[in-house]
Amino acid sequence: MRRVVVTGLGAVTPLGVGIRRTWKRLLDGHCGIVNVNHRDSRFTDLPCQIAAVVPNGTRQEGGWTPSEWLSRDEERKMARFAQYALAASEEALEDADWKPTSSEQKEMTGICLGSGIGNFDEIYNTVVAYDKGGYRKVSPLFVPKLLINLGAGHISMKYGLMGPNHSATTACTTGAHSIGDAARFIAFGDATVMLAGGAESCIHPLAIGGFARARSLATSYNDSPEKASRPFDADREGFVVGEGAAMVVLEELAHAKARGARIYAELCGYGCSGDANHMTAPKENGEGAFMAMKKAIKSAGLSPSSIDYVNAHGTSTVVGDAAENAAIKALLLGPGGKHTARDVNISSTKGAVGHLLGGAGAVEALFTVLAIHENTMPPTINLERLAEGFDCNYAPKQAQDRRIDVALTNSFGFGGTNSSLCFSKLQS
After folding, report:
1. Which residues form a coiled coil (predicted)?
2. b/e per residue 324-359 (b: at least 16 CB within 10 A)
3. Which of 23, 193, 217, 341 could cross-link with 48 by S-S, CB 3.0 to 4.6 Å?
4. Catalytic pick from 31, 48, 112, 172?
5. Looking at the domain assignment, is residue 263 inside a domain?
């Protein structure tokens, strides 16, 4: 198996446009969750009126202005989630100093980009237009803007990427699956470089209304949105929908070394599992999460004692956080693992950026890579009162400086789909 390393990072998040800005604001304890009533009056009818939104503004100020990233034609043809992904891809490729020009370079470079829901606004608006005006009100771009794989398609066309062109759509596990699958394309020799990640943009009254009806969202914090997402806290009550994108450049180790690329970390393990339990709820003991993490550690050839940090899925739901916490403790404590719960380091970054759905696993993978690269454990903001059974170290409200050589990042989705990625410092 060929070894896979991370050489480029790019992100568009509710903390700002650009991975460096996002990371700094994350470590400083900022939150990107806001009240969204001003966007659409229909939000006022919902029990949840908040979301984690990519801020508008100039690129220099860390805000989003489409014309600074896309041509007018690209903006017209691309769904919002794909626009975010294109901007994150540009940053990641520049960060990696990899812009393939020769036919050989283009053929060895692929893309794996997914989304959980995709272009929700386009679906809603077209259904309304069709209902009122019939066939002639349907845009010829409707289907191309609807297809989730067109995000990968547009980016591959922009940069001439002729390697694997792949899209995963596995709910909130999408970003992690995309990165793990891309790494396997490299490990098995189907590509030498892969651009991989996830993206989402569905801040729409109907989408949030659907999650609210499923009783998945925080509903008591409409007047204090920055406090709504509170992973592991005793007062947590649900997640907050977020938008954005994150992309990573993965590269075969020898190729990265040969061209003198900066290497952030090695992607050394990838594990997947299924709960086979319920449409939206995990098993209370976190069995599916446990299996995904166990497989990731096994594929990395490591023991539980090697894990210095876990970037948890940690969505701030009552059942989900408890199940994941139980799974992490079951895996990392005991023979071959840590001695006490306080030795287990876990944090959730969703308090700061909300839940990016199909983009969550990707942005959290980037946070995990930077945690290793900078030996910094990002904080779990809003963690003021630990719930019963939560006795690990969760970096409450403040980042922690600590040696992080190996880390896991978890992602779980509706339908019981689970994935865990294992990153490490590069070892000779």
Report:
1. none
2. bbbbbbbbbbeeebbeebeebbbbbbbbbbbbbbbb
3. 217
4. 172
5. no
